[in-house]
From TrEMBL, chains A, B:
Pfam families: PDH_C (PF20463), PDH_N (PF02153). Keywords: Amino-acid biosynthesis, Aromatic amino acid biosynthesis, NAD, Oxidoreductase, Tyrosine biosynthesis. NCBIfam families: PRK07502.1. Its EC number is 1.3.1.12. PANTHER family: PREPHENATE DEHYDROGENASE, PREPHENATE DEHYDROGENASE [NADP(+)]. It catalyses: prephenate + NAD(+) = 3-(4-hydroxyphenyl)pyruvate + CO2 + NADH. Belongs to the prephenate/arogenate dehydrogenase family. The keyword Amino-acid biosynthesis applies. InterPro entries: 6-PGluconate_DH-like_C_sf, NAD(P)-bd_dom_sf, PDH_C, PDH_N, Preph/Arog_dehydrog, Prephen_DH. The lineage of its organism: Bacteria, Pseudomonadati, Pseudomonadota, Alphaproteobacteria, Rhodobacterales. Pathway: Amino-acid biosynthesis; L-tyrosine biosynthesis; (4-hydroxyphenyl)pyruvate from prephenate (NAD(+) route): step 1/1. Residues 8-297 form the Prephenate/arogenate dehydrogenase domain. This is prephenate dehydrogenase. It comes from Agaricicola taiwanensis. One of its GO terms (molecular function) is prephenate dehydrogenase (NADP+) activity.
Length: 312, 312
C-alpha cells in the first residue's frame, strides 16, 4: 500500500484514546511503515502490546523519538513541556513534531522553546473523541469525517504542514488551518464551556437535599443523562484544558452567564414571547450540524433503538 | 388479547409525539378496545388518520371525551385549563382523566377546578421523549423501561390510580407516585434546567462576533452538538414548561449559577485540585444511570457507529 505511505517511522508519545486511535487508523490505512509506541506506565505499555498497536514499545520518550519522521504527543495538555524537553535531544533533523492537545496557545508556549530549529513543529487538534479513555477505547475510524485543526506558526515550512495534513486526511479527517489564538476561542465555545456546564449541573444535582441522588438517576431520561455522558470525561484531561485555556474559557463563560441571567429574568417576569423566540432560533443550528455530517440525524442520537434492542 | 385489556374506550386529546406514542403502544399491546383521536388542526387530524392511529377522529374535545373510560390530554401544559373546560360537560361518571404534562402543580391548578366530582383525575408524566414532535414522531416502544410519574391528589380513588398505573405498565413503563410539588422539583433539576442551559449555550454561540456560526457548526463534535439536540425541542412545549414551573426552575437555576461561579473562580485562580475533585465525583453518576438501564452504555451514545455506517 505504498501509494498511501506518508512517513516511514511514526512515534506516538502517549497511547490512550487519541494516540491508540491514530495507531489503529495509520496501520489500517497503510500510512506509515512502522509505529513506535511510548507511554508513561508499564501497565498501559503492556496493554498496548497485547492490542498490537505498534511495532516497537518503550517507556522512554527520547528512545521513542529517535529516528522518527513524525512524532505525535497524545498526552494531557499539562504534560506538553515535559514531552518537548524529553524528546528534543533525540529528534533527527527534518522530523515533524506534533500533538493533539485540546488547547493550542499553551501547547505552543510549552513546546516551541525546547524544540531544535532543525525540526518542524506543527501543533494539531482532532475534533473527535468519546467519553472513554485509555488504549482500549481507541477506534480506527474515530477521525473519519471529523475535522482536524492545524495551528502552524507563521514561519513553519509549508511542506511539513502539508505532510502532517496528508497524514490526517489519510486517517479520514478534514483538515483546517488557523492561528492558535483563534483555535482556543472557537474551542472554548464549542467544547470547553459545554463541558464545564455539564460538569457543573451534574455537580449541582449531586448535592441537593430535597431531591435524592437516586431520583436524579431514575428520572435522568428527561434530559439530564445527556450531560452525564460529557461529565464522565477524563478528569485529568479536563483539569488541564481549563487551566491552560483560562482566558478564552472565562471570556465565553462570562457571555454564557450574562445570557443565562437574561433568560432567568424572562422566566421570572413571564416573558413567553422572549422564550419562544430564543427556542425557535436555537432549533435551526441542529439542522445545519446534521446537514454538515457532524451528528447523527436519528431522534435521540439513535440510542433509543440501541436501548430497545438490548431489552428485547 | 383480552387479558391485557384495561379499558374499553381511550380518548386522546392531542396526538403529537406523546399522544401518538400512547396510541401506538395501546394498540400494539391490546390495552384498549377503541381509541378516539382528537387534535386541534385539521392537518394533524388528517395525518393521524393516514397513520391509522385511532378508530374515531374528531376536532372536538367534548365529542372525543364522550363515552370514554380514560381521557388523556397530551397538549402543551399551557392548554390544560382549556381542555378541562371543554371536556368537563361531556365526561361520563367514573371516567379517568389524565394528562402527560411535564409540569404537575400547574396542571392540577388548571384542570382540577373544572372537572366534575364524578370523575377521577390522575395527573401523570412519562419521563420519555425525543427532540421531535407531531404524530409522525411517535414510537410504540417510547415508554419501554422508562418511568411514568403519577401525582394523584390525596383524596383520589386508589382503584382509579391503579387502573391508570396498569395502563402505563402495559405500555412498558415503570410507575412511581409522588406529590405534584415534589415532581416539579425533581423535574426542574433532571429536565428543565438542563434544557434551559442547553438553549442558552446554543443562543450564546449564535451571536458571537469572533467565532462564526459556520465554525460553531463545523467543530460542534467537541461537545456542543449534544446541546443542540436538546435545544431543538419544541419551542411551545418548552415555553409553557418554564412559565408553568417558574418557582422550582428559578430555585434550581439559582443553585446551578452559584456552583458555576465557584467553578469559574477555581479556573481563575488555578485551583487544579478543586477541578479534578469535581470532575472525579461527576463521573460516578453516569455509571449508575447506565446500570439502572436509563441510558445506552456505548461510547458517545453509540452514535459513532451509526455515523460511521452511514458514511461507508
Ligand atoms: N478524549 C478526547 O475526546 C480528546 C479529543 C481531542 C483531543 N484530546 C486531547 O488528546 C490528549 C490525550 O487525550 P486521551 O483522551 O487520549 O487521554 P487518555 O486516553 O487518558 O491517554 C493519555 C495518555 O497520556 C499518558 N499520560 C498521562 N499523563 C501523562 C504525563 N503527565 N506525562 C506523560 N504521559 C502522560 C498516558 O500514559 P499512562 O496511561 O501510561 O499513564 C496515556 O498514554 C489530551 O491532550 C486531550 O486534550 C482528547
Ligand atoms: N416531547 C417530550 O419529550 C415530552 C415528554 C414528556 C411529556 N411531554 C409533555 O407532553 C405534552 C405534549 O407534548 P408532545 O411532545 O406530544 O407535543 P407535540 O408533538 O407538539 O403535539 C402537541 C399536540 O397538542 C395539540 N395542541 C397544541 N397546542 C394546543 C392548544 N393550544 N390547544 C389544544 N391542543 C393543542 C397539537 O395539535 P395540532 O398539531 O393539531 O395543532 C398536537 O396534537 C406536553 O405537555 C409536554 O410537556 C413531552
Amino acid at each position: 500500500m505504498a501509494e498511501g505511505l506518508i512517513a516511514n517511522r511514526l512515534a506516538l508519545i502517549g497511547i490512550g484514546l487519541i494516540g491508540s486511535s491514530i495507531a489503529r487508523a495509520a496501520r489500517e490505512r497503510g500510512l506509515v511503515r512502522e509505529i513506535v509506541v511510548q507511554t508513561r506506565s508499564p501497565a498501559t505499555l503492556e496493554r498496548a502490546k497485547e492490542l498490537g498497536l505498534g511495532d516497537h514499545y518503550t517507556l522512554d520518550m527520547a528512545e521513542a523519538a529517535k529516528d522518527a519522521d513524525v512524532v505525535i504527543a497524545s498526552v494531557p495538555v499539562g504534560a506538553s513541556e515535559e514531552v518537548a524537553k524529553a524528546i528534543a535531544p533525540a529528534l533527527k533533523a527534518g522530523a515533524i513534531v506534533s500533538d493533539v492537545g485540546s488547547v493550542k496557545m499553551s501547547v505552543v508556549r510549552q513546546m516551541a522553546p525546547h524544540l531544535p530549529s532543525s525540526v518542524h513543529f506543527v501543533p494539531a487538534h482532532p475534533i473527535a473523541g468519546t467519553e472513554h479513555s485509555g488504549p482500549d477505547a481507541g477506534l480506527a475510524d474515530l477521525y473519519v469525517n471529523r475535522w482536524c485543526i492545524l495551528t502552524p506558526l507563521p514561519d513553519t515550512d509549508p511542506a511539513a504542514v502539508e505532510k502532517l495534513s496528508a497524514l490526517w486526511r489519510g486517517m479520514g479527517a478534514n483538515v483546517e488551518t488557523m492561528t492558535p489564538e483563534h483555535h482556543d476561542l472557537v474551542l472554548a465555545i464549542t467544547s470547553h464551556v459545554p463541558h464545564l456546564i455539564a460538569y457543573n449541573i451534574v455537580g449541582t444535582a449531586q448535592h441537593l437535599g430535597e431531591v435524592t441522588k437516586s431520583e436524579v438517576i431514575q428520572y435522568s431520561a428527561g434530559g439530564f443523562r445527556d450531560f452525564t455522558r460529557i461529565a464522565a470525561s477524563d478528569p485529568t484531561m479536563w483539569r488541564d484544558i481549563f487551566l491552560h485555556n483560562k482566558d478564552a474559557v472565562l471570556e465565553m463563560l462570562g457571555r454564557f452567564s450574562e445570557d443565562l441571567t437574561a433568560l432567568q429574568r424572562m422566566i421570572r417576569y413571564g416573558d413567553g414571547n422572549g422564550l419562544f423566540d430564543l427556542f425557535t432560533r436555537t432549533r435551526a443550528i441542529r439542522r445545519s450540524i446534521i446537514d454538515k455530517g457532524q451528528d447523527a440525524p436519528e431522534a435521540d442520537f439513535g440510542r433509543h433503538k440501541i436501548a430497545a434492542k438490548a431489552e428485547t
